[in-house]
Amino acid sequence: KQWYNAEYGSSGINAEYGDGDCFLNLEGIVNMQLSSKSVGIFEAFYNSVKPIQLITINLEVQKAGRLPTGVTTIPFEFPLKAKSNRPLYDSYHGVFISVQYTLHAELRRGILNKPILKNLEFIVEGDKVARNTDQPSIPFTITPQSLENIREIKAVPDFKISGLLDRAVCDIEQPLQGNISVEHSAKPIKSIELQLVRVETCGCAEGYAKDATEIQNIQIAEGDVMRGLAVPIHMVFPRLFTCVTTATNNFKIEFEVNIVIVLQDDHLITENFPIKLYRPTK
To answer: Is the pLDDT of residue 112 over 80?
Structure first.
């Protein structure tokens, strides 16, 4: 089930039998944790990390009374609005940050019977913004001279790789597209890959911990690519594992794209492109 920020969520609970009260609890929580490499560095921060409660609603959807024979649908409705002035963020399943919205249904059946419990996660899409149509493409050229963190440039084989990405501010509902071309390379190429990376930052007054982890890796070319051939780039942003780029006082969720060229001797050539994701109004 999917709902949107500031709308009314409505659905129903199917019950086959029962003679007690039926309660519904809705909660939205941001959970944060530090990576193992950061725990020792930010010990004070580690102890202060607490889940952020975005929304909590408790409803009695069915008063005590015996349900009729067969399947009974108990309807319910609730306003999907966050506490205070905090917005509802996109549903997101990350490594160190997660944003989850869950419905907990409970059918109480008297003192002698155990209650029937059912949990269900639902998806929330947060605030939308106007579509940005004025986004220039991003041309790039990768050569030994353009690489960073190189100790000896003479040890890097000569190559020139060019291409473009269609935009850096991306509609999360549309694929990222572009092309890449190997103009020349002194060593044969094994493969060309497109890597999507999440950059999660957790922080407070004691400090910030920033971790980058891979979401997906797509091979867009295999073998020693024909020189001068424009290889198309096409990548869909996976649901739940990506969300709109989010920055708050307590955490940030950002995304990057890496173009990775693997040479025949397994040396890697990597070019990094920070991107911003947004969800446009229809």
So the answer is: no
Q: What average pLDDT does this structure show over 69-82? A: 73
Q: Going by C-beta distance under 8 Å and a sequence separation of 6 or more, which residues neighbour residue 144?
A: 150, 153, 156, 157, 158, 159
| Burial of 37: CB neighbours in 10 Å, binned 0-12, 13-18, 19+ | exposed
pLDDT band at 233, cuts 50/70/90?
Answer: very high
Q: Are 99 and 240 in contact (CB under 8 A)?
A: no
Closest listed residue to residue 8, CA positions, set 74, 57, 69, 73: 57
Q: Say how far apart CA 216 and CA 30 lie, in whole Å.
A: 23
- Six token digits for residue 218: 């797509």
Kindly provide the residue ranges of all beta strands, DSSP E only, lying in 97-188, ordered along the sequence.
Answer: 97-107, 116-125, 138-142, 159-165, 169-171, 176-185
pLDDT band at 12 (very low <50, low <70, confident <90, very high): low
CA–CA distance, 160 with 146 (Å, rounded to integer): 10
Q: What digits encode the pLDDT tens for the residues 256-271? A: 999 999 999 888 899 9
Of all helices (H) and strands (E), which one includes residue 45?
Answer: helix 43-48
CB 172 within 8 A of CB 244: yes
Q: How many residues does the chain have?
A: 282
Q: What is the pTM of this model?
A: 0.84
Q: How far is CA 185 from the centre of its chain?
A: 35
Q: Is the pLDDT of residue 243 over 90?
A: yes
In order of 79, 195, 223, 232, 279, the CA distances from 8 in angstroms are 4, 37, 52, 42, 20
For the chain, the distance separating the N- and C-terminal CA atoms, rounded to the nearest angstrom, is 19
CB 104, CB 42: distance < 8 Å: no
CB 115 within 8 A of CB 48: no
Task: Say if residues 264 and 189 touch (Cβ distance below 8 Å).
Answer: yes
